Amino acid sequence: MSPPGLLRAGLWRSPAMSRCVLEPRPPGKRWLVAGLGNPGLPGTRHSVGMAVLGQLARRLGVAESWARDRRCAADLALAPLGDAQLVLLRPRRLMNANGRSVARAAEMFGLTAEEVYLVHDELDKPLGKLALKLGGSARGHNGVRSCISCLNSSAMPRLRVGIGRPTNPEAVQAYVLGCFSPSEQELLPLLLDRATDLLLDHIRERSQGPSAGVSP
């Protein structure tokens, strides 16, 4: 039986095809929110974007409604937000290929790059610092670079979640692929809540009128 959240949102999971099937687009705006990361490594710094998506799904009451869609190689959950609809996406491809999942989902839902939010880790901001920007370069982030390449656009709004940078440049790869320390984990619940608030406030504002400005 299909998750009720997907049925209410206009997306249902076909047992025969084991994939999500789209129904007619509902009235109001629709936004795709993608949490970038590596599947199977949810507790690492590099996958903090996926952790934000998990908190967003809980806040919207669709945490039990994730369904795998083989066409875009991702887990999807749909949720209403006022008159708008959010498509939550967690790629099942590695970070360097996240863009293939995001671009395919955008195509499936008929969305432009401006209607796709990317949530990802940011080395150049300390843990706990958030920034929401509209468009721009990948700033060295391979997941964002993949999305820019596959969407053929750099216009996607991005929520950058600070994870800090190690003092030794040679330790960056091990650092981002490592798990948060116990002291860092104590900060995560509040960080995920703040990130969710920032996302929802920004999407609500854009759903009601012209695009909102860039947050500091």
From TrEMBL:
One of its GO terms (molecular function) is peptidyl-tRNA hydrolase activity. It is an enzyme of class 3 (hydrolase). Keywords: Hydrolase, RNA-binding, tRNA-binding. It catalyses: an N-acyl-L-alpha-aminoacyl-tRNA + H2O = an N-acyl-L-amino acid + a tRNA + H(+). Its EC number is 3.1.1.29. It holds the Pfam family Pept_tRNA_hydro. Signal peptide: none annotated. InterPro entries: Pept_tRNA_hydro, Pept_tRNA_hydro_CS, Pept_tRNA_hydro_sf. Belongs to the PTH family. Peptidyl-tRNA hydrolase that cleaves nascent chains-tRNAs that are not stably fixed in the P-site of 60S ribosome-nascent chain complexes. Acts downstream of the ribosome-associated quality control (RQC) pathway to release non-ubiquitinated nascent chains from 60S and 80S ribosome-nascent chain complexes. Does not act on ubiquitinated nascent chains, which are cleaved by ANKZF1 for degradation. This is peptidyl-tRNA hydrolase. It comes from Prolemur simus (Greater bamboo lemur).
